[in-house]
Design goal:
The protein is of the alpha/beta class. The chain has helices at 7-15, 44-57, 74-83, 85-94, 108-115, 129-132, 161-170, 197-201, 222-230, and strands at residues 26-29, 31-32, 39-40, 63-68, 98-104, 122-124, 147-148, 187-188. The chain starts with 6 loop residues before the first helix and ends with a helix.
């Protein structure tokens, strides 16, 4: 679990009470909920408090999958090593509190570095080969190719109308945000986020209640609603 808020933990704990052996919990070492919302830390003491809190909220005394959370840069890895975080996780595994040690990352080179350390039982890493192998038979993780799909700026005069619509929204005060994928560098090439809406449409025919679909008739994405209605 790495939820955006602390609230779900107690709910999950109540939900699986009496049947812990039928559920698997994934705890992220580095996710911090002291403020009530998700935060990230590499501080060992903060991490210990967060893990203890999560165990109590989930009403369990062990973690099935303990993930070293969101380590994307060598500096982050060296920081958690120096702080004793990895040693702490290995001690918990030796005591049976953590059953398997994993890593969550978005950086291939960093992942290889941790794999070479021989501490991992599992890895969480989203791969999108359609982009990773674009233009060749070997993956290209060069910095200038690590994001795709951003809105062109300036916009060419002969661009399709929906490209211009995107620019008029995402690149102007109306829709620009510093953390917006479409306003800036685009989608991470190893992310599956850009594909999530497509599989969901495949299950539209399972909806049993009334649904109101509202879509601009000239919107490029209008086919989403039309496809869902046909199903």
């Amino acid at each position: 679990m790495a939820s955006s808020e602390a609230k779900p933990f107690a709910a999950y704990g109540r939900a699986i009470k009496g049947m812990r052996d039928k559920a698997y919990f994934q705890i992220h070492f580095g996710a911090n909920y002291e403020t009530g919302v998700y935060g990230w830390t590499t501080d060992l003491d903060t991490m210990k408090r967060s893990v203890d809190w999560q165990l109590k909220a989930l009403q369990t005394d062990y973690i099935d999958f303990g993930f070293l959370h969101c380590i994307d840069e060598s500096a982050d890895l060296h920081e958690v090593e120096k702080a004793g975080v990895i040693r702490y996780m290995e001690e918990l595994k030796g005591a049976g509190v953590v059953r398997h040690i994993g890593l969550s990352s978005h950086t291939p080179l960093l992942v290889n570095e941790v794999l070479d350390m021989g501490i991992l039982d599992m890895l969480m890493f989203s791969i999108n080969p359609a982009y990773d192998y674009a233009g060749g038979t070997e993956p290209n993780y060069a910095k200038d190719s690590y994001a795709v799909g951003s809105v062109a700026d300036p916009m060419p005069e002969d661009a399709p109308f929906y490209f211009k619509d995107y620019h008029n929204y995402y690149k102007t005060d109306r829709g620009y945000h510093a953390r917006s994928l479409n306003s800036n560098g685009g989608w991470n090439v190893t992310s599956s986020l850009s594909f999530l809406n497509m599989p969901i449409l495949q299950y539209a025919d399972e909806i049993r209640s009334a649904v109101l679909l509202i879509h601009g008739e000239k919107a490029h994405s209008c086919y989403f609603s039309k496809d869902a209605e046909r199903r």
